[in-house]
Design a protein that fits this description.
single chain; about 375 residues; Rossmann fold; Immunoglobulin-like; 4-stranded antiparallel beta sheet; 10 helices
């Protein structure tokens, strides 16, 4: 059975399940959240500093705080803040509705996560991509990475999950950013248990259970950790959910399976399901401009000798990043600034007869 056919069957099961089930796990009232710092995990490493910019789909059930709590359980230090407004699109933040741009410019962020409504329509995609590009200029300027938090359609529009995913991924890809397939993880979890209560009382905002799943997806993407290694505990908005350890394990597996369909930093295995790239590809590094580190992604449709090297403006090779025999799959490698001076660099991927070069900018 194809993935698309499987998805269609899941959506049909959901429609049936939703007509039979009328109760969920409860809702946090929809209220405006100002920028807020939440406690960081205890760890010897400096925390990853994460800034959320979005609306009530971020502050309902305190997604930033939930992410921090999961980081603590996984021994990953995370320091999260948020700038949100009820019903806000990203353009509302950019056009003076909040101080999001000023908060970004304070700097010292590792990731800035962007989120708005479902944005499933073609015209919504244009607006989402444009706002992402505008935000990315500010995010790059402080050396952070841009991430797009995919949400979900309201319950009456279940058929639009694919459009939401495609448009958020397009926005992330446009700026070489990180795609956070949170809404996609709902479908993955429902494939195992269609009765899971992810929609709140208004058929749109997430239940605490759904927020927990969203945070698991983001935790894996940002830290490179495996959510299945976490203890079977669900803490959301400071409260431990009264759910079974089996349900927690199901959600952890759903997050991991969903992330496995996309490139995850530090993971060189093909996506879950065995799909391999159909062509060679070299992706734009992210972040770019960068300092002190950046990541480069590339794709190999079959095995062979791979060479990835860094050159300066004079065409002189300044670093060998990869020089090895590699199997077919999706790859992500990191590059550190170390002793490199600021300036324009080129990175070149050679694999068999394939060769591609892209430009990056190091700003110290």
């Amino acid at each position: 059975m194809s993935f698309a056919t499987h998805r269609s069957m899941v959506l049909l099961l959901l429609c049936l399940a939703f007509t039979l089930r009328t109760t969920g796990l409860g809702m946090i009232p929809d209220e405006h959240s100002r920028p807020q710092n939440v406690p960081t995990a205890t760890s010897g490493d400096p925390p990853l500093r994460v800034l959320f910019i979005g609306n009530s789909l971020t502050y309902t059930n305190d997604l930033p705080g939930t992410l921090t709590a999961i980081g603590t359980l996984g021994n990953h230090a995370l320091s999260c803040a948020s700038v949100t407004g009820p019903g806000f699109a990203l353009t509302d933040h950019l056009d003076g509705g909040s101080d999001a741009v000023d908060v970004i410019r304070q700097g010292n962020w590792t990731y800035v996560i962007l989120q708005q409504g479902p944005s499933s329509l073609p015209e919504s995609r244009v607006i989402l991509v444009d706002a992402t590009i505008r935000f990315n200029v500010e995010i790059w300027a402080v050396g952070a990475s841009t991430a797009l938090y995919m949400v979900w359609p309201d319950k009456s529009r279940l058929a639009f999950f694919d459009a939401v995913r495609d448009n958020y991924k397009a926005a992330a890809d446009t700026v070489g950013g990180i795609f956070l397939p949170a809404g996609e993880a709902w479908l993955t979890a429902w494939a195992s248990d269609p009765s899971l209560a992810f929609y709140g009382a208004d058929d749109f905002h997430p239940t605490p259970l759904a927020t927990f799943l969203v945070a698991l997806v983001i935790y894996e993407r940002l830290t490179g950790a495996d959510a299945r290694d976490l203890p079977p505990i669900a803490v959301v908005a400071g409260d431990t959910l009264a759910i079974s350890s089996e349900t927690v394990r199901l959600l952890q597996a759903a997050a991991h399976t969903t992330n496995g369909r996309y490139t995850i930093a530090g993971v060189k295995d093909p996506p879950i399901g065995g799909d391999l790239p159909s062509i060679f590809a070299l992706r734009q590094n992210s972040p770019n401009p960068w300092n002190p580190s950046t990541t480069i992604r590339y794709e190999l449709p079959h095995a062979g000798r791979v060479r990835l090297a860094l050159f300066n403006l004079l065409g002189e090779q300044v670093r060998t990043i990869v020089d090895a025999d590699e199997t077919a799959g999706y790859y992500t490698v990191g590059v550190n600034a170390d002793a490199l001076p600021s300036g324009v660099y080129f990175y070149s991927l050679s694999a068999g007869a394939f060769r591609e070069v892209k430009k990056m900018l190091l700003m110290k």
